[in-house]
Design a protein that fits this description.
The chain folds into 2 domains: 142 residues, 2-Layer Sandwich (Transcription Regulator spoIIAA), CATH 3.30.750; 60 residues, OB fold (Dihydrolipoamide Acetyltransferase, E2P) (Beta Barrel), CATH 2.40.50. The chain has 5 helices and 8 strands; from the N terminus they run αβααβαβαβββββ. It has a 5-stranded mixed beta barrel with strand order 4-5-6-8-7. Strands 1-2-3 form a 3-stranded parallel sheet, covered by helices on one side. Helix 3 packs parallel to helix 4 and helix 4 packs parallel to helix 5.
């Protein structure tokens, strides 16, 4: 069981102990923090702060050291400026999140946020936000890769999803990788069955993907 989109303002702290005592629930948390600047968060209708977000992350990792945390950041929201973006970057540096997706705000008529700007101002801010996004993604890539490297040498279950045709390779996912949004695990093996879970050793990180070999039967990694 993988929990996705847990709102940080209403995060149920008792969930942490429950997950620790129920191994069928993966220690993976998708928490959309969205921003770090308090004025922007208030404009979004959110109660959290940069400090409360960091405290939540710290608590999760205290109770579940193996926890993987994904989040999303919204850039270009009305009122965002250089200082606001700097707050986001500082938050990411302190938070050391495992995965982060970023999006540029899209002006939608009839929303409260649309009342805070106009089309001309939005286009200008969106252009700046796309530049911010490039900086953010470069920073987060380095953080993500560093987090992934802590898995190298670990023994971990991999859900085998598909065989790479013509190759002794399979594509799968660990608990640290949600479908479609995170990296994958490439397993060097033969005769595995898609849909099964195989205990593997993580051998290296390639970009944002793991490379692994089965530990019990199937393949020993040698040709």
């Amino acid at each position: 069981i993988r929990l996705l989109y847990i709102h940080p303002d209403t995060f149920p702290m008792e969930l942490l102990e429950f997950i620790r005592n129920h191994p069928k629930i993966l220690p993976y948390f998708d928490i959309p923090f969205q921003h770090a600047k308090e004025s922007i968060l208030r404009s979004m209708g959110r109660r959290g702060t940069k400090a409360s977000h960091l405290a939540l992350i710290q608590k999760i990792r205290e109770v579940l050291p193996e926890a993987v945390i994904r989040s999303t950041i919204l850039l270009g929201y009305p009122g965002e400026d250089e200082d606001s973006f700097a707050e986001v970057m500082d938050f990411l540096i302190q938070a050391q999140l495992d995965w982060v997706g970023s999006f540029v705000y899209s002006l939608e008529e009839g929303t409260k946020a649309a009342e805070l700007t106009n089309e001309r101002a939005h286009r200008k801010l969106a252009s700046k936000a796309r530049r911010f996004q490039q900086e953010l993604e470069a920073l987060q890539l380095s953080i993500t890769q560093a987090r992934l490297k802590t898995f190298v040498g670990r023994k971990i279950d991999v859900l085998i999803e598909e065989h790479v045709e013509g190759e002794e390779l399979y594509i799968g996912r660990t608990y640290a990788q949600a479908p479609e949004v995170d990296g994958l695990t490439v397993v060097l093996a033969r005769d595995l069955i898609p849909g099964t879970v195989v205990r593997c050793g993580i051998t290296r990180v390639n970009g944002i993907d793991f490379e692994a070999v089965p530990l019990y039967g199937g393949y020993d990694g040698s040709h």
